[in-house]
Amino acid sequence: MPLSRLPAPRSLNSALKAGLFVVVILAATAAYASPVPCTGPGAPSTTETKCLTAIAIPGNPIRSFDISWVNPKRAEYYLADRSNSGIDIIDTRQNTFKKTIGGFVGIVLNAAGAVDNNHSGPDGVTSHGKWLYAGDGNSTLKVIDLEKGKIVATVSTGGTTRLDEMALTPDGKLLLAVNNAEDPPYATLFAANGDDEDNSVASLAKISVSTTYIPGGFGQSIEQPTWNETINRFVVSVPIIANNPSDPAGCNYGQLSGAVTCSGAVLVIDPTNLVTPVEKVVPLVHCGPNGATDGPNGNVMFGCTPNNQAGDNETTVLNVTTFNYVDVGDLSGSDEVWFNEGSNRYYTGSSAMHGGAVLGVVNGTTNFLVEAIPQSSASHSVAADSRRNKVFVPQVAPKSVVGAGGDVTTVGAGICGGTSGCIAVYSVPGVSGE
After folding, report:
1. 32 is a domain residue
2. Is residue 367 part of a domain?
3. How many domains is the chain built from?
4. Within a 10 A sphere around the Cβ of 284, how many other Cβ atoms?
């Protein structure tokens, strides 16, 4: 519109007020969106993986979070943020906070005042299209319509503890989620929404594991599932199973006092067979895994951790057709692991390293450790955007701010540029799709 045709303001005073309002809003927006530079040990200049910025989360300082997920088609990152009782959504193009979708139980404390992981939520999270699925601390699945920006359904899994890790088939029509803290633990298979416009999520089957492998009464667990396209099956981490390794003297899976000496296993689950869905139980060698992610060439990375089996100091990459494996040395304690196709690298949220928590980087072809970048002490979650080649790593606030569970180092504050926690954004080698 030409300047001569602009309507004149009714008064100078009203124009000034309107202009001031616009200036204030723009200034606030600019300040909120400004990237925070990373500093300190978590932003080394010598690594290939570079810390780009840190994204602050409005609300409570970050004390407890769980699994994260990226939907590259929507350019969104999702974090199960217990501290703010919801799912945080980050724009992966602009590296900015979008919103938190609430409605979860949040942090539940135990008698000692520490976070009770078994009853807090949200926990596991995954997505397909406009549908996001998240487990809550009260054994329910929350179904979120991202276009509406809210929870549209809550489905019980029949337990009393949290619904945790989960995975979808590529078409988004089948969802496997684990009730890891039930005793004995089990998984629930759901009919999910795929690309449907309306919600119709329903429970299909409860999947249990033979007590030969997971005896009840000893606090055993089932952890992260992932979908493997080579065999068209879910493969699932099991931290500890009985009698692995097989030994006449037995191994300790929790039935004895002292350190656990039994290793874990991998479940192979066929979702088309609801009668006997557990197709195989594959024992691992000196690995008690939590995280799992589908990699190239039929390989799956499992995040072994000494919290499950004392002495674990490696991460295992297993081929699900041959069941041969290799170990990535000096990398352990990974609750979440993520393969990024854009850079052909695995990323690990490794919290049990001797020198402190790290973001582990592993070559997807050679399975060699490329580098390990220091993180806040409670770091255990990681997800990457394969189109934009960015890695997102949440950081907890310092212990002096949030109490038990907070960062006991200065690494997180250096990355975040403050003491409320944040989500660190790292760039990775590769050609960005946008």
Report:
1. no
2. yes
3. 1
4. 24
